[in-house]
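Tokens for chain A. Residues wanted.
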């Protein structure tokens, strides 16, 4: 009788152990989960650390930037005589200008076309160079057309001669498309102007500092 009781007790213990989670299995699960989180964090870190070579960024900026930009049409009404109550004076002492020019390309205008009542008008390089046959482009079209635009050494960034500005690596142009288009498959003319305005901090033109900061 005692032997039967002992055997019965052993059976109960073995049954309980069979259904109980083992420490080894639990520990293995925890380590696997921790490793997964570490892998994800490492991947996210790698994406965040991707930056554009300044020389590659200059190759793009020198294709898109211009020597001329139209600003505030009403500013052209100023007499520029340093009147004490002039509504066209800036807080820092300068004047609001109707337009500006530079010896070398300095701005990527945030508009595609602008005209003033005085008769002045300006169509931007990016409008005529990228949106050649419609109001929207795919990523492949954007990259190809930007690469084919004429380069001129701009103000800002490392200096590159025109002869050294050929684009062989398309990744910078592709990254610029992603910045402007977001998750859209196509970039519209309107959206490009809107996103350029955001990159410039609300100014009428994107300068090298704005552009290089956006591309990292």
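Reply:
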């Amino acid at each position: 009788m005692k032997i039967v009781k002992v055997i019965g007790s052993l059976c109960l213990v073995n049954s309980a152990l069979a259904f109980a989670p083992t420490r080894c299995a639990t520990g293995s699960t925890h380590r696997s989960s921790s490793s997964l989180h570490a892998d994800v964090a490492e991947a996210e870190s790698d994406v965040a650390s991707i930056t554009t070579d300044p020389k590659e960024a200059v190759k793009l900026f020198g294709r898109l930037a211009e020597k001329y930009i139209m600003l505030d049409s009403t500013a052209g009404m100023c007499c520029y005589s340093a009147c004490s109550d002039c509504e066209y004076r800036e807080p820092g002492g300068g004047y609001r200008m109707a337009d500006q020019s530079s010896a070398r390309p300095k701005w990527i205008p945030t508009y595609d076309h602008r005209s003033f009542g005085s008769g002045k008008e300006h169509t931007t390089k990016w409008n005529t160079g990228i949106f050649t046959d419609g109001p929207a482009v795919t990523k492949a079209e954007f990259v190809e057309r930007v690469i084919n635009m004429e380069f001129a050494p701009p103000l800002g960034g490392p200096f590159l001669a025109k002869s050294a500005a050929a684009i062989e690596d398309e990744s910078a142009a592709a990254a610029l498309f992603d910045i402007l288009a977001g998750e859209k498959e196509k970039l519209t003319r309107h959206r490009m102007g809107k996103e350029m305005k955001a990159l410039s901090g609300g100014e009428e033109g994107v300068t090298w500092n704005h552009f290089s900061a956006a591309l990292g």
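The radius of gyration is 31 Å. The longest strand covers residues 68-70.
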